[in-house]
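Second opinion, please. Please look over this fold, written as tokens:

===
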Amino acid sequence: MTEFDDLERQLRESVRAIRSGRRRRARRIVPVVLVPLLALGGAAGATGVLSGSSVRSRADDLEQELRASVAVDGACRSGLVERRGGATFSDAAPLPELVRAFPALARPPARPVPRTVLAEAARLVPGGSVLRRAVRVAEFPDGTRLLLVVTASTPWASVVDPAQCREQRLAALAARRSGTDPAVYARARERLAGALDTDPVAQVLTVASGRRRPDGTGGGGSSSLPVQPGHPIRAGRSWSSTTRASSFVADPRAVTVTVRRVRPGSPARTWRGPGAYAATIRVRQGLVGFRGRGGTAGRYRVTQYDRSGRVVTRNVRP
């Protein structure tokens, strides 16, 4: 009799015991049956988790290996050298994902963007293709200034010929198909096909933060967010902090935002006394910027309100 036959026998005996009223005996038998079954189920579940993790890990390793194997080819060579000459300007429209997050980008700015601002945008993303109609400046009462720029390429990571490079990578993967686990192959192909640096329609949102200078220009750090079709921007989650300012993408419905500094730890308690910060800020160009306390280490409770004063979202960031 095998182990599984013995388990089946014990299960049948326990059922008969319950039906005949011999519950005391059933209580002695049921745990004996359930423990092996639960152990078997737990082992199977753990095996599934480990198997999925292994597939992801091996697919990621394979993807990196294939990227490196074709990186020396003409199409997959870095485009940094070729684009050293500086940024260009494009009249292309921003992706729908960007327009949903920044409704104002659905149309060109009411007034032409000053040449000084366009020059600043070009310096911010050297080698990129700047969407002229998507350049915006947001200024806030405390002096914080945000420059929003959308580019049609990723100059620091793009390749010479994105479409051809994608084909080369997929061809290199296809040559390895016979000796590759089907699940690993499928995941690696999905990642290579959707890679940002070979996506011909991907765009990049860059926001530079700083404070106004006497001459009207700004300065400080910047952060970039790649945007691809089918991958919406998560409002309120794109947080950037520098020693000069903090900024984030507001919910499209939000008009005003309250920001309060909170203490580290959980739950997040409002900061009282020296070092506290609280402000009500009006959303400008779909962005919120402020110079709080604590530099890059600051944490804030952010509450966003719509035009009627109702709460749109509330969270602690970053």
Notes: Residues 23-70 form the longest helix (48 residues).
